[in-house]
């Protein structure tokens, strides 16, 4: 199967920038000192690979999409590999730590991906940044794009199930750390516009959010029309204006650490 990001995410480097707070959290959870060798599985354009390499680490970025590779910026401490999570093209015992950022919902087999991560990193930490929309706080996107919100339930398993699988396949204890989404996030993933609803009206931004980019246009057309109307007329602010006073929100984004 062709990687989905061969067809979407053309403006990925512009809108999916590494957010320093996510970088800090990953480095902290890895608990390793540079120049440790790390693997970034589902690296995309290498936005986080490069940001973490800037901290003195050596990163082996694994990504199946040629589109993502073409957008990657060269970094002396980032080594690129074509490959999927279920068959990581790295030798056994080749890295000291692994991280995976908002990519696991694209894996065809979580179990196989976890086995592979454990193979290349049998004793070091494995850190996943992922999400589970089931208990999200005030998920107003559902009001405008219910089909997209519901689709997340189909591709993202409950976080408890993911933790259990990771413990079994990585043979390590797993901790689950909540990560409230800040209002000024630099990485425009799905929840980034929770306080900036106009973000979702930009087609280039939507093209870099897989849930939108892969949806049929008819599914989101009505929602976009209603959202634009509600923003322009003040209806959105009337309904959700209380969110504008918040700095963060819990939309069920989580850091999982197996160690």
Characteristics of this structure?
259 residues, Rossmann fold, alpha/beta, 16% strand, single chain, globular, 9 strands, 7-stranded mixed beta sheet
How would you describe this protein?
It is built from 12 helices and 9 strands. The chain is of the alpha/beta class and 259 residues long. It has a single domain (4-258), classed as 3-Layer(aba) Sandwich (Rossmann fold). The strands form 2 sheets. Strands 3-2-1-4-5-9-6 form a 7-stranded mixed sheet, sandwiched between helices. Strands 7-8 form a two-stranded antiparallel sheet. The longest helix has 17 residues, at 217-233.
What is this entry, summarized?
Strands 3-2-1-4-5-9-6 form a seven-stranded mixed sheet, sandwiched between helices. Strands 7-8 form a two-stranded antiparallel sheet.
Write the layout of secondary structure elements.
Layout: H1 12-15, H2 20-30, E1 37-41, H3 47-53, E2 58-63, H4 66-71, E3 78-82, E4 97-101, H5 110-120, E5 126-131, H6 141-144, H7 146-155, H8 159-170, E6 174-178, E7 181-182, H9 203-206, H10 210-213, H11 217-233, H12 235-240, E8 248-249, E9 253-258
Helix pairs in contact: 5-8
Question: Quick one: overall form?
Answer: globular
Report the CATH C-level class.
Alpha Beta
Across the major sheet, the strand order is: 3-2-1-4-5-9-6
How would you name the CATH homologous superfamily?
A: Vaccinia Virus protein VP39
What is the CA-atom radius of gyration, in angstroms?
18 Å
Output the number of helix runs: 12
Global mean pLDDT: 92
Tally the structural domains. Answer: 1
Order of H and E elements: HHEHEHEEHEHHHEEHHHHEE
- N-to-C span: 32 Å
**Quaternary structure annotation:** single chain
The largest pleated sheet is described as: 7 strands, mixed
CATH fold naming: Rossmann fold
């Amino acid at each position: 199967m062709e990687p989905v990001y061969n067809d979407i995410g053309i403006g990925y480097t512009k809108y999916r920038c590494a957010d320093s707070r996510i970088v800090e959290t990953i480095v902290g959870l890895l608990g390793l000192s540079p120049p440790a060798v790390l693997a970034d599985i589902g690296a995309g354009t290498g936005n986080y690979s490069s940001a973490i390499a800037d901290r003195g680490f050596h990163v082996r970025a694994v990504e199946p999409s040629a589109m993502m590779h073409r957008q990657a910026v060269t970094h002396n401490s980032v080594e690129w590999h074509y490959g999927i999570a279920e068959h990581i093209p790295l030798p056994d015992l080749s890295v000291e730590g692994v991280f995976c950022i908002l990519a696991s919902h694209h894996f065809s087999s979580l179990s196989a991906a976890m086995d592979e991560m454990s193979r290349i990193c049998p004793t070091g930490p494995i850190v996943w940044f992922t999400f589970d929309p089931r208990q999200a706080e005030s998920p107003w996107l559902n009001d405008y794009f219910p089909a997209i919100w519901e689709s997340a339930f189909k591709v993202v398993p409950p976080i408890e199930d993911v933790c259990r699988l990771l413990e079994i396949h990585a043979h390590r204890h797993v901790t689950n750390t909540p990560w409230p989404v800040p209002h000024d996030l630099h990485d425009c993933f799905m929840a980034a516009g929770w306080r900036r609803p106009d973000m979702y009206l930009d087609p280039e931004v939507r093209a870099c959010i897989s849930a939108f980019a892969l949806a049929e246009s008819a599914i989101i057309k009505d929602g976009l029309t209603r959202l634009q109307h509600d923003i322009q007329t003040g209806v959105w602010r009337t309904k959700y204006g209380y969110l504008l006073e918040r700095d963060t929100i819990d939309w069920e984004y989580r850091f999982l650490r197996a160690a």
